[in-house]
């Protein structure tokens, strides 16, 4: 098998090669490259598909019991510093390669149709191949230095993709925000890696783990030095995986084209931090002061992302905060010693989120011809509704991804999230409560998004019998009728989420400062279709393919009854020795599983039910009752609900605090430094120069060129000096 593993370096090479080919074509033959743009897209997809075949082959070799393979060669041959480059193929690497390449291929197929009308189509595919190459190289890296290099390439890819539409100011600001935030993490990662090298003297993972534990056991390592190194090292995963407080870049990353949401959110960009923690966990576990903060950062991130997602009206931002929350679960799990659950959730979350991201792209793509191409319109869930009637395949697959992310059995995320909830409760009840509370919020905000998008009635239409009747969850009752007959639409929406349309003079107009001009008046022209249409087959094919792992990938972590029940498939893949040493009593496991599953499913169902009360589709006859009930709830919880909504809609005010402290604070500091430099430093230098100039100018008039004047001055000065010396001696030496 070693002869096959020798070609592992080709996996990142294939997507890199496609990016180089397209880039050179755009540089030297721009017109010809654009004219053959579909050919270049096919080449990119084909080369990444070849890398996917290699990944599946390596994965099959690893799960059948082949040993870990490492290939490396010397990079810096020096007596003081020794560093190698190469690649490492083990079960963790093979699993990550499968995730990266499969999702990457589906995203490329989806992007072919989504970006077909964009002028930057070819440039987009050149950019899209780079993150696949960078992430493949990152997971193959055998040492932290090589991970750091590929991590920088991943950061560059984020910058390019988020700022793809760089002429839009919001996109330009978002890519800069992502770049700068991740530089904070990269600086900490570099400090931590350098510190561990100073302690151990090697960059190899095996040497790091073995020597560090030996040195720690022999008291050769100071915890006062190793612990700060670990915290600096963890700044890298915290920034890359959007953990609090370095999470602010991820929601703004939605300014890029919708297809990049899948590589950023699912298995490539943000998963790099979780992968790095999983790689270094044998070292981090030896530092007890480090593990607890990891779990608390994960718990805070999970709950924070879920609460902020409650009031977001942008479809892509809801998914962004959902990703942030799920990444919090993945960071919480290794902190409580459940690294397998973290990796399990990384796998099960990747495919549902990769399904939801192209699903949102399909929805946005169908909304753009109706409401306009501005993101404030096409991505506003308040203007959607009833899309499943017109887009049945997109709506059904979107429901599958939503159910999985909520943790509903038997879909993928249920199995891993249930395990994290149980382990966190066993480790520390407060963390368990945070995890369970977040699970309930996940069901609430995900189904709020689902009820307002595929379900109900389409709200951006030009029907003559249009009625705008909305019970704001945090505001006032809004209604206006165009005729005596009511339509089937009476949906309650959050305050500041919707602006009523004006297709006729009889409809009352409602202004909203946050969604100003949310529907173009051109929408009501005859040339615009009255309803969205299902996407073409090119966009639907990835949705159907990604639905399969969304339904079944969770079973890799479930032990099935056997005569002598061993571990589940995932545990066996990660550590084949467990199949002989670790046996499970199926009856005890089943009882414990049913107990934990009942709790987790009950919490998720409660969150879904809470979302159904104000947002779910109900028969027309019950809508008056819903309005009365919502008004009563607003009267009881009005002030608290208003505070919660404002806090959630404003992203917890964290971005505002950062804007005041870091952006405005930096500007004030720069002005102070500029003032000091201009008036103090330059003032002293300029003062000396001006004094010299005036002194020289004044002395110029005192020099006439006559020797008698010079002798008179010399004698006068000598006499004055003698008088001063005589007086000095008389005063001090009488």
UniProtKB/TrEMBL annotation:
Residues 75-125 form the NADH-Ubiquinone oxidoreductase (complex I) chain 5 N-terminal domain. Signal peptide: none annotated. GO terms for biological process: ATP synthesis coupled electron transport; electron transport coupled proton transport. The chain crosses the membrane at residues 6-27, 39-59, 85-109, 147-167, 179-201, 221-239, 260-281, 293-311, 390-412, 424-447, 540-560, 597-618, 709-728. GO terms for cellular component: chloroplast thylakoid membrane. Keywords: Membrane, NAD, NADP, Plastid, Plastoquinone, Quinone, Thylakoid, Translocase, Transmembrane, Transmembrane helix. Residues 448-677 form the NADH:ubiquinone/plastoquinone oxidoreductase chloroplast chain 5 C-terminal domain. It comes from the Eukaryota. The keyword Transport does not apply. The keyword Thylakoid applies. It is a multi-pass membrane protein. InterPro entries: NADH_UbQ_OxRdtase_chlpt_su5_C, NADHpl_OxRdtase_5_subgr, ND/Mrp_TM, NU5C-like, Proton_antipo_N. Its main location: plastid. It holds the Pfam family Proton_antipo_N. It is found in: Plastid, Chloroplast thylakoid membrane. It catalyses: a plastoquinone + NADPH + (n+1) H(+)(in) = a plastoquinol + NADP(+) + n H(+)(out); a plastoquinone + NADH + (n+1) H(+)(in) = a plastoquinol + NAD(+) + n H(+)(out). NDH is composed of at least 16 different subunits, 5 of which are encoded in the nucleus. NCBIfam families: NDH_I_L, PRK06590.1. Belongs to the complex I subunit 5 family. NDH shuttles electrons from NAD(P)H:plastoquinone, via FMN and iron-sulfur (Fe-S) centers, to quinones in the photosynthetic chain and possibly in a chloroplast respiratory chain. The immediate electron acceptor for the enzyme in this species is believed to be plastoquinone. Couples the redox reaction to proton translocation, and thus conserves the redox energy in a proton gradient. This is NAD(P)H-quinone oxidoreductase subunit 5, chloroplastic. The gene is ndhF.
